Amino acid sequence: MVKKVLDIIPPKKQEASKENASRIGKEKAEIKPAPKPKITYIPKKIPAPVFKPSGMKLPSGMVFSPKTLLASKIAIVLIVVLGAFIFLDNKLAKATITIWPETEDLRSEVQLTVDSSLKEPDLAKKAIPGTVITAEKTYSDDFAATGKKNSQNKAQGTVKIYNNFSIAQRLIKGTRLQAPLEKFQPALSKDETPWFRTAADATIGAKASADVLVVADGTGEKYNIEPSIFSIPGLVGTPQYTFIYGQSFEKFRGGEKGALPEIKQEDLDGAKDALTKKAETEIKKDMEIMVPENHVLIAETVKFEVLDASPAAVAGTNVEKFTYQVKVKATGLVIDKKELDAIAKEHLLSQVEDNFGIYEKSFFVKYTYVPFAASTPPVSTGVSVADIKVEAGARVYQPIDEVFVKKGLAEKKVEVAKFFLMNQSKVKNIEMDVSPFWRTNIPRDLEKIQVNMNFD
How many domains does one find in the chain? Predict the structure, then answer.
């Protein structure tokens, strides 16, 4: 065995003095430990394994070939497509069934009594309630006078005579006063004079004036002159001529000549009759407006009463037109259309079996007023009672049990469903619309089956 030889002899351990030990202890206390380094973990990206069918082996020893993998993909796609198809088929499945039922036209006729004392319809008594409405109104209109009257009247007016002379002046009855020719419109003819004569004797004091009534010397409207200055022809050649004159301040009136219009009594009577007939027509329109909604006014029950009739002029008045005024009152009987329709429909359906229904759009009601026979007067008078003949009609059919039809059609093929419906009684024709387009049978869910009735 080779003996080991130590070339280096380690120094002997020296004991430290107490002072050195104390110093070393302080130095160790002052020395701070170095901070630990910060370590950031960055995961290493490991590449995904590349699948190579040709070289991959299963634990069982089997190997995937490319054909097997393709078949698997196709199978998965088919399963997904089939699942989506089934989902859409269930989601969008819907069937609309339109049925044309066999119908027949039905008519009925019944006579009803409308009575304002009733509260509800009574089919047994063939009576329905009515309501009385009242209207009052005043109407007026202008009418032409047809009469003619020959008139030869002279115009007249008041003239103030001024006497600026130093002595009084006496004017005897018939004294002439002359107006300027331009005041006469139209102009006077050769045989007409521009004179007005005093109607009575008059004396005008010195430096005074007096009002004197004068009358035209001729007849006609041209003497109805406007205010004017008058001279006195009888004073010509005397000093008084320039000091005594007349003046009018209002238009003269009353001058007439020829045929004038005149109101005759026949005009007044005719105006009353014509206006009364017009008032009856107009107040009936007003009553139509007053009729409540869904109510009907029986026009033949409307009764009229003339409360007042007064013309604005009397017979003999010389005017071309006159105004006539009448005040009328009307009362009539109103029926509720809903009640009339209900009782008419009830009577119509009483002619068929209970399981028949009415095509509402074809239903109609019309009524005709029936006058009371003289031998059978109404219980009450006035317009509170009336008889009407009511005609009603509609297309009726035998309704189909919708729930029964839906249950009978659910899940059936379209052709089988058509055969099922056509074998139902009172069915004239059918039409089916099934969606989506690829479906060949009716949906199972009854809520997805819609049944419509068609009467066109």
Answer: 2
